[in-house]
Amino acid sequence: MRYIPHSPETVSEMLQTIGVSHFEELLSSIPTEIRVKDRATGADSWEEKGLSEIDLSRKYKLLAEENTPTSKIDSYLGGGAYEHFIPSVVKHLGSKPEFLTSYTQYQPESNQGMLQALFEYQSMMCRLTGMDVSNASHYDGGTSLMEAALMAVRRKPGKLLFSTYLNPMWKRILKTYFSETPEILCEVTAPDGVLTEDTLKNVDGNISALIVQNPNYLGITEDLEALAAYVHSKDGMLIAAVNPIALGFLEAPGKLGADIVVGEGQPLGNALSYGGPYFGFMCVKKDWMRKMPGRLVGQTVDRNGRRGFVLTLQTREQHIRREKAISNICTNKAICALRAAIYLAYLGESGLKRVAEECFEKAHELQERLCQIEGLRLSFDKPFFNEFTLRLPKEKHAPDILTQLRRLNILGGIAQEADYLHLSSDITIAVTETKNQEQLDRFVLAWKQVII
Amino acid sequence: MSNIPKNLKYTESHEWIKMESVEATVGITDHAQHELTDIVFVELPQIGKKVKAGEVAAVLESVKVAADIYSPVSGEVIQINTVLSEKPGLINEDPYGKGWIFKIKPSTADGKLMDATQYACVVGS
Q1: Residues 255-314 of A with CB under 8 A from B
Q2: Where are the domains of chain B?
Q3: Contact at 8 Å (CB) between A299 and A125?
Q4: Residues A108, A257: one domain?
Q5: Same domain, yes or no, for A361 and A390?
Q6: What are the backbone angles phi and psi of residue A296, rounded to the nearest 5°?
Q7: Which residues of A touch B66 (CB under 8 A)?
Q8: Under CATH, which architecture does the B9-108 domain have?
Q9: What is the pLDDT of residue A1?
Q10: pLDDT of A111 higher than 80
Q11: Which residues in chain A have their CB less than 8 angstroms from residue B84's CB?
Q12: In angstroms, what separates the C-alpha of A315 from chain B's closest C-alpha?
């Protein structure tokens, strides 16, 4: 099969039409030193024939070897992306060509299999979050959060409140999107590591929404129920940004008063993969169904009464509503959401609960053992899920400690000083079900060595 | 042939308005509901909303399109047809009756309205 449809004759005809004698003339504005060179002659070559399969495999293997996958190093990094075990069924079913090639649904209803998978994804996300309606996914957690914030501001113009311990990357996304109205973004301090009414009530004026990341960026669980009650009393919405694995263990945010639930979906069956592709999820209460952005798959019957799946409520979307669409980011991450659906279906309710419990138990075991080491303590003595923040003795510099751990082939956690000046000797450590006893022992031992 | 009652005034964007002493009722025409096909959702204005003639006052969604409803006159929305939230199909069944959308208290007399004969020319019937 030819992938380049233009014959030499067509090319010369096209060049003639636009009055150019050689194709190279079109490239004249590109500096020669960055152009692709012919490997044999070293001459400028836009027609390079490419590498043989053998050479190409070698080239990419060498490039890939520059990565540090978690299979080669013991990683305790979290902060929004987590290393969870991915059962091989996820990769095998999720890579089936029938799903891969129906990725973009320009003719959605011809891809019944993909629509059914997304419908099941939505159904499971609703159950997981305790909400009524889920869309078919967003680009990533940050996009979901930003879209939720926009929904809130459209409902009621006013301030968007969030904890200083909201994921700093998400804060930057909010700042970018609201760069024309920065006054509505209101970062609230959390002296005890968590949001409380005490600090929230210092914010005056109209409140559009309170954004609560749970667990927050330091790993601490927030009191969603109390925070929802507070923001509702101010006629604001509660946007909960959650870790979906934690919902195997924690109460569903929909049952605690959340109006919109969003989050990063990567922990559900998607590899860390150097930061992407990930996907965002968004679930809302029924009242917000028509105000929610993104694609939405519905179940229906055809004229013969057979079950079928369709994209529904598309009047919210830009191909119908044009400039009045709810969002102009209509792409969903179908393949990543599909993997999440397979992962959730394979684990089932009890399986997900077990994963979450293991994360919780191993994280707590590790935290207790680390805090027995002299000089180490929790930055905030608060409940956490699978991630906790340790404070080192004052004279220790967190990045130095992490460098020393790195020499022992351990990625020890996230130094918080880059984002929080007052947390200069604090490290956030994430633990998942993937860790075994031997690894945890080795980690504790390594800490004993480096902290002395 | 669509139904165009003589006692109403019309806009080019296919709304009808029924002027009464101090208030006016607004809906969409039979022609409009037919073009939109089955209406599945109505986003009603808030009571008290002040609109200018030609401004968007409500949004209709049919199975194939979302359409803005423009206020034929300037004024303040004083009543909305809340039944439509549950039964948006009333607009299809009875566009000039039970399918009314909102009532407005006009602030000024607007001159751009058409009578039934003029509107009939617009829709070509």
Answers
A1: 290
A2: 9-108
A3: no
A4: yes
A5: yes
A6: -140, 125
A7: 315-316, 320-321, 324
A8: Beta Barrel (2.40)
A9: 46
A10: yes
A11: none
A12: 6
DSSP sequence for chain B:
-----TT-EE-TTSEEEEE-SS-EEEEE-HHHHHHH-SEEEEEPPPTT-EE-TTSEEEEEEESS-EEEEE-SS-EEEEEE-THHHH-TTHHHH-TTTTT--EEEEESS-----B-HHHHHHHHT-
Beta-ladder partners of A390? A378, A427
Decide if A17 is inside a domain.
no
- The answer to whether A249 and A357 have CB atoms below 8 angstroms apart is yes
Last residue of a domain, one of A322, A344, A366: A344
The residue among A344, A378, A408 that closes a domain is A344
Q: How far is CA B13 from CA A158, B65, B66, in A?
A: 34, 15, 14
Return d(Cα A338, Cα A93) in angstroms, integer: 9
Q: Which CATH number fits the domain that encloses residue A253?
A: 3.40.640.10
Identify which of A1-15, A109-123, A376-390 has the greatest average pLDDT. A376-390
Gap between the Cα atoms of A268 and A336, Å rounded: 9
pLDDT at A228 over 90: yes
Tell me, yes or no, if the pTM score tops 0.90: no
* pLDDT, position A209: 98
A330 & A367 share domain: no
Query: Could you list the residue range(s) of the whole structural domain that residue A262 is in?
Result: 88-344
A290 to B43: CB separation less than 8 angstroms, yes or no: yes
- Assess if residue A112 is contained within a domain: yes
More confident residue, A318 or A302: A302
CATH number at residue A393: 3.90.1150.10
Residue A45 pLDDT class (50, 70, 90 cuts):
low
pLDDT band, very low/low/confident/very high, at A404 (cuts 50, 70, 90):
very high
In sequence order, the 6+-apart residues with CB closer than 8 A to the CB of B80 are B44, B45, B47, B101, B102, B103
